[in-house]
Design goal:
Layout lengths: L1 E6 L1 H4 L9 H9 L2 E6 L5 H6 L1 H4 L7 E5 L2 H7 L6 H13 L3 E6 L17 H21 L3 E4 H12 L1 H4 L9 H12 L19
Parallel strand pairs: 1-2, 1-3, 3-4, 4-5
Helix pairs in contact: 2-10, 8-10
């Protein structure tokens, strides 16, 4: 099975080595071919614009789409990400590629105070929560497969500490955090199938 992971720096593996990134770890854990199509600083608009080159050119079985953090950081709202996510999902369906929605990581409430000059952490964190809930509802209504990185990562951060889960910027996962993300995706049964059945099929959890 060939899966392209489309996203921003969290997918690209900012701050860790290539071998430590969750996408690379999944290739080892699952035996499937996972292709990292993450670009640091990318928004969902950028992801949509490069869908052909970054996803369809690889002729994948599935595309794990995860973005929106930079949309919120740049425009202060998750609303600008919504139409882009919808467009990417529908384009994947039309091309016979199974879309998988990745619910992105929460923003650490302990992000550096230096961000205050251009970013309200509380507002951004709240927007991420609203966005995550919309993604879950959207995926549920369209019966799309979902990898809820947000829920598993928040549990990890609350159990072991936010400083252990995030790099000093409060936005990107540590090497240990990448392991958590990889395990979250690897636990999904639908990544063990090899058929090209309908993209709207509800996977058994």
């Amino acid at each position: 099975m060939r899966i392209v992971c489309l996203g921003c720096s969290i997918t690209a593996g900012y701050g860790v080595s290539r071998e430590e990134s969750w996408v690379e770890l999944l290739s080892v854990m699952t035996g499937h071919l996972w292709i990292n199509a993450g670009i640091c600083g990318d928004t969902t608009g950028g992801m949509l614009a490069r869908l052909d080159k970054s996803v369809f050119s690889h002729n994948p079985d599935a595309a794990l789409i995860m973005g929106g953090t930079n949309d919120i950081l740049s425009c202060g709202s998750w609303e600008c990400a919504k139409p882009n996510i919808m467009a990417m999902v529908h384009q994947c369906v039309s091309r016979g590629v199974k879309p998988v929605i990745g619910v992105p990581l929460p923003i650490s409430p302990y992000a550096p105070s230096s961000y205050k000059s251009f970013l309200d952490i509380k507002t951004a964190s709240a927007q991420m929560s609203f966005y995550s809930e919309w993604l879950r509802l959207f995926a549920s209504e369209l019966r799309l497969r979902t990898v809820d990185f947000a829920s598993s990562y928040e549990k990890f951060a609350e159990t072991f500490g936010w400083d252990r889960a995030y790099l000093s910027d409060g936005l990107h996962p540590t090497a240990e955090g990448h392991i958590v993300m990889a395990k979250t995706a690897a636990d999904k049964k639908f990544f063990r199938v090899t058929d090209r059945s309908s993209v709207s099929e509800q996977a058994a959890e």
